[in-house]
Amino acid sequence: MNATAILNKILPIVSPNMHKTRRKALSACVLSLAQGSLCTVTSIGRGIQSNAYEKHRIKRSDRLLSNPNLRRESIFLYAYICKLFIVRARPVISIDWSDLDARGQYFLIRASTAFEGRSITLYEEVHDKSTKEKQKTHQKFLQVLKALLPVKAKPIIVTDAGFKTPWLDEVIKQGWDYVGRVRKPRKYYDSTQNTWHCISSLYPKASSNPISLELTHRHSSPITNQFVLYKSSYKGRQSTTRKGQKRKSGTSLKAARGAKDPWLLISNLPVNRHFARRCVKIYETRMQIEEGFRDMKSSRFGLGFELSYTFKIERLINLMLLTTLTAVLLILVGKVMELSGYAKRFQVNTIRKRRVLSHFYLGKRAVMTRFEISKNEWRDGIRQLLQQLEKRV
């Protein structure tokens, strides 16, 4: 069973009410991306498997990106992804913003769940500068996400320091828990000295053993929350130039200084003896959403969205849907390849105890080389995948 057959079986289940012609066009464009086409209108069109002239194939992808019906039906596709991957009552969901172009005109807010080194996109929205990081935008996003998730799900929302106090309040209104990060120059109240101090004064106490703290913060309307202070061991990573020298640009040095800061995490999870370590473990999964953004944008290892110059928000919404469906397809194929024992055939070294390639890249190589997966292997792989999702912490 190749990727075309897999996709043609999945899409009718996901979108039973979608017009047959539109579903075929969607399948053709997703398969084009999965087989290595870059995330641009012309590249997707040229990669469509058809006897038509390239001119007409490009026009086919162009019409799909402008299709308003696909935008309306996209919510059902995201709902199916949530149904497939959110099987636990307490899923961990990371949410973050990402720039969609170098001009800084359009931005993506995405909710995803961690899955063995990569993230599975559950829901996403495209916004311009006028609605980016606004409270109403966040309110609507969380409300839609809640409607998509299973009724019994009570997620733990993970965000970085860019999501401030109003965001955490909105998460609480949904009846959910959160794990976030606080960075300087935020302040906390020191009751022993009756004064406010910058949180950087706590940094010297940080170590590889997480410390649970109860601090009063919010200078305008003080409130007490549980915090966790943690600093991981030095990993020796250095950003170097092509000549092997340390980068000394302002951007690189600023990022290096920020990376040296310990984590000061804030959470409303139940406090017990495992609280601190649990918060650290949950927050560590947040980096996987960054890997998902790289898979979408990278033209070398991912889908090549960085080369797209689409500037209409309506087309961007459909283009994001294509990248999400492609990523889910590739991760599913990669996971089935691993469970069937074929992953070792695609890696350079002879390591047999673990998988070296990500599920995304493994699936991409399998599709590009037209690797055949039998129906029994596909069924067994999906069955094992669902069992792992139910057991996953």
TrEMBL record:
Pfam families documented for this protein: DDE_Tnp_1 (PF01609)
A GO biological process held by the record: DNA transposition
Gene3D superfamilies: Transposase Inhibitor Protein From Tn5, Chain A, domain 1
Record key words, sorted: Membrane, Transmembrane, Transmembrane helix
Region (Disordered): 234-255
GO molecular function, one term: DNA binding
Highest taxon in the source lineage: Bacteria
Domain Transposase IS4-like: 90-310
Stretches that traverse the bilayer: 316-337
InterPro entries according to UniProt: IS4-like_transpos (IPR047658), RNaseH-like_sf (IPR012337), Transposase_11 (IPR002559)
Protein name, per record: Transposase DDE domain protein
Species whose genome carries this gene: Marinomonas aquimarina
Lineage: Bacteria, Pseudomonadati, Pseudomonadota, Gammaproteobacteria, Oceanospirillales
